[in-house]
């Protein structure tokens, strides 16, 4: 067998060179055509304040770091006139790059190509880059901007979605997955972002819903705008579907970059440490807690006062604001922070705050990020709506997540830790490695007022001066139980510390917990109260 | 952050202690609970009444179909939860009903 066709060997050298040059030139033309844009579609995209898919990728990744794959992938649909339609990149751009030096796999749906509609080839480009990300152990970033399923492709389009969801699930807890919603993301398509770890939305650009305003109007007769139904604000504040909210695409990309620096590339690696810097906070921790137990303060002041550089990246800041979760660094290493927020709803636990904290804890545990919990809560939120909304099973998620987590768990009780709320907030009993309490901590079954009113109900009613008697009993209960010392005497609290010692105790506890390993009974997986 | 935008302090009373705090939009907009009246059957979904299967004065058994409501592309049988006597019907075939609209009253 000949290595080369003899006809080619017979050609003069010049002719071969010409052919080679032509191939190079043809490639340049083909590449320019494939990466080009349809002028009218581009104009419409920009008129909505949206950037082009390629511009978005370039804005997120480091300069010159993006490498694109599958540029020439074509769909195979031959129905409903699709056989004559050539779609650039089949409506999605995929590749790899770096963000501040961290490797990422990235895809961006291109709304200017057939409305970013998802057909099988489009989906297979996404699943291919997902497979790469899982194998290489690098974070996956998806930019969603799509009208939905490519209806001409029928069930093949649905197959595409299903294959993406399947990989989102396989990748969960293996590589961090980030979804950026920069356009419509409707119907089944929203379930891919929902399966990922962090969802970013941008005001007036992001739209997420299962059934749109048109269908709702037809079926239910209810009228609502797309913005009010599933706009960025709704997802960030009411539904809890979004984790980060931005006013512009530029702000959103800065948030994405910041997040990437806090999280590891995969579950076998630690988040990259940075150089340690002291807290920059001017807040005096001794003065942060108001004198009256029923007065609010911003728990983020405490977080900023103890973490490196007072840098705190809050996650889901607008939803269930009665609990604060997010990333910070201690001695240059990433920690996950969970804290009750007395400033909102007195910091109670409820359906949404339990849900929010539980998910965050599971992310941290999956990616080997130690947990620091700050406790100040009066208990669970009472209410018919809460009970009927399932506060029992949602509240149980928090207990499950904390108990299940095997990363270092350090708890600081700042003020109130009452009843079931005390147990739930990473108490010693749920496996906290270290529990510290400030001297103003009140660790009890409930607040002194409520406790005295129950214990001495009869006596108060019969007393000559019921109010004076009641106040006396409240004082007695406060003295006996509203302190950290009963818990400390029983070993439920390891150390009662002055507020200004908090950072020092945390840094030491984190340092000595680095080699922590905890064995659990073998199982396929637990059955959390989803 | 919502709380920072709303400096107004509200009061949340828990175990006899009044906490000064801010409400979330969800909490502020929550609806007070109203118990369901078993004698008034309301539409749980909007739709088109296709058939009414009972008459006023008729005694119905639990689970018995009262009317057929077409909604979500399905002919849904609306059934009685308890045994009762029909007092009045507020739907006739051809009516389009809204969610929460009264359909049947029982004695």
Can you put this structure into words, describing what you see?
The complex is a heterodimer of chains A (530) and B (107). In chain A, strands 10, 11, 12, 13, 14, 15, 16 and 17 form an eight-stranded mixed beta sheet that branches. In chain A, strands 1-2-3-4-5-7-9 form a seven-stranded mixed beta sheet, sandwiched between helices. Chain A is 41% helix and 17% strand. Chain A has 530 residues and is α/β, with parallel strands linked by helices. With 107 residues, chain B is mainly beta. Chain B folds into two domains: 1-30, no CATH class; 40-106, RNA polymerase II/Efflux pump adaptor protein, barrel-sandwich hybrid domain (OB fold (Dihydrolipoamide Acetyltransferase, E2P)). Chain B has two helices and ten strands. In chain B, the strands form three sheets. A four-stranded antiparallel beta sheet of chain B has the order 3-10-8-5, with no helix packed on it. A four-stranded antiparallel beta sheet of chain B has the order 7-6-4-9, with no helix packed on it. In chain B, strands 1-2 form a two-stranded antiparallel ribbon. Classes of the chains: A alpha/beta (530), B mainly beta (107). The A-B interface holds A 219-222, 237-238, 293-296, 298, 314, 317-318, 320-322, 341-348, 352, 378-379, 381-385, 388, 418, 446-447, 449-451, 453 and B 1-3, 9, 12, 14-27, 30-31, 33, 45-46, 71-72, 96, 98-99.
């Amino acid at each position: 067998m000949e290595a080369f066709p003899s006809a080619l060997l017979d050609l003069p050298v010049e002719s071969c060179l010409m052919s080679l040059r032509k191939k190079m030139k043809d490639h340049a033309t083909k590449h320019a055509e494939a990466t080009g844009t349809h002028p009218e579609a581009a104009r419409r995209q920009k008129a909505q304040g949206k950037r082009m898919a390629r511009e978005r990728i370039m804005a997120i990744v480091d300069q010159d770091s993006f490498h694109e794959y599958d540029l020439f992938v074509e769909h195979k649909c031959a129905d409903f006139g699709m056989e004559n339609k050539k779609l650039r990149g089949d409506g999605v751009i995929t590749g790899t790059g770096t963000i501040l030096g961290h490797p990422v796999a990235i895809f961006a749906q291109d709304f200017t190509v057939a409305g970013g509609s998802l057909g099988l080839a489009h989906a297979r480009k996404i699943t291919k880059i997902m497979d790469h990300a899982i194998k290489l152990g690098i974070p996956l970033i998806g930019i969603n901007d799509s009208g939905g399923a490519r209806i001409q492709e029928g069930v093949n389009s649905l197959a595409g979605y299903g294959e993406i969801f399947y990989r989102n699930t396989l990748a969960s807890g293996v590589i961090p997955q980030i979804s950026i919603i920069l356009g419509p993301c409707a119907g089944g398509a929203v379930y891919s972002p929902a399966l990922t770890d962090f969802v970013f939305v941008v005001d007036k650009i992001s739209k997420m819903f299962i059934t749109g305003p048109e269908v709702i109007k037809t079926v239910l007769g209810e009228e609502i705008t797309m913005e009010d139904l599933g706009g960025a604000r709704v997802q960030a504040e009411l539904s809890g579907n979004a984790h980060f909210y931005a006013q512009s695409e530029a702000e959103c990309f800065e948030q994405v970059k910041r997040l990437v620096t806090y999280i590891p590339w995969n579950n076998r690696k630690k988040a990259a440490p940075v150089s340690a810097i002291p807290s920059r906070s001017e807040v005096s921790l001794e003065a942060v807690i108001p004198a009256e137990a029923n007065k609010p303060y911003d728990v983020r002041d405490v977080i900023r006062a103890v973490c490196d550089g007072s840098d705190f990246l809050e996650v889901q800041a607008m939803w269930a604001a009665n609990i604060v979760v997010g990333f910070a660094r201690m001695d240059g290493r990433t920690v996950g922070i969970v804290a009750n927020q007395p400033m909102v709803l007195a910091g109670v636990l409820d359906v949404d705050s339990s849900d929010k904290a539980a998910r965050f804890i599971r992310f941290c545990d999956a990616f080997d990020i130690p947990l620091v919990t700050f406790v100040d809560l009066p208990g669970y939120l009472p209410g018919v709506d809460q009970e009927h909304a399932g506060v029992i099973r949602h509240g149980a998620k928090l207990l499950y997540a904390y108990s299940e987590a095997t990363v270092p768990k350090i708890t600081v009780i700042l003020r109130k830790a009452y009843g079931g709320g005390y147990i739930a907030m990473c108490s010693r009993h749920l496996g906290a490695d270290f529990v510290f309490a400030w001297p103003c901590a009140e660790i009890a079954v409930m607040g002194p007022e409520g406790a005295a009113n129950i214990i001495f109900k009869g006596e108060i009613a019969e007393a000559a001066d019921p109010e004076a008697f009641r106040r006396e009993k409240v004082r007695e209960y406060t003295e006996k139980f509203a302190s950290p010392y009963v818990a400390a005497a029983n070993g439920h609290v390891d150390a009662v510390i002055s507020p200004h010692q908090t950072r020092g105790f945390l840094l030491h506890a984190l340092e000595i917990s680095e080699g922590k390993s905890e064995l659990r009974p073998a199982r396929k997986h637990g059955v959390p109260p989803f | 952050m919502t709380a920072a935008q709303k400096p107004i302090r509200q009061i949340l009373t828990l175990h006899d202690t009044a906490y000064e705090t801010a409400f979330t939009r969800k909490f502020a907009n929550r609806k007070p609970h109203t118990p369901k009246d078993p004698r008034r059957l309301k539409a749980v979904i909007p739709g088109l009444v296709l058939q009414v299967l009972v008459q006023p004065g008729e005694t119905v058994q639990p689970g018995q179909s009262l009317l057929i409501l077409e909604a979500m592309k399905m002919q849904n049988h609306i059934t009685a939860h308890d045994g009762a006597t029909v007092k009045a019907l507020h739907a006739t075939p051809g009516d389009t009903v809204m969610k929460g609209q009264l359909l049947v009253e029982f004695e």
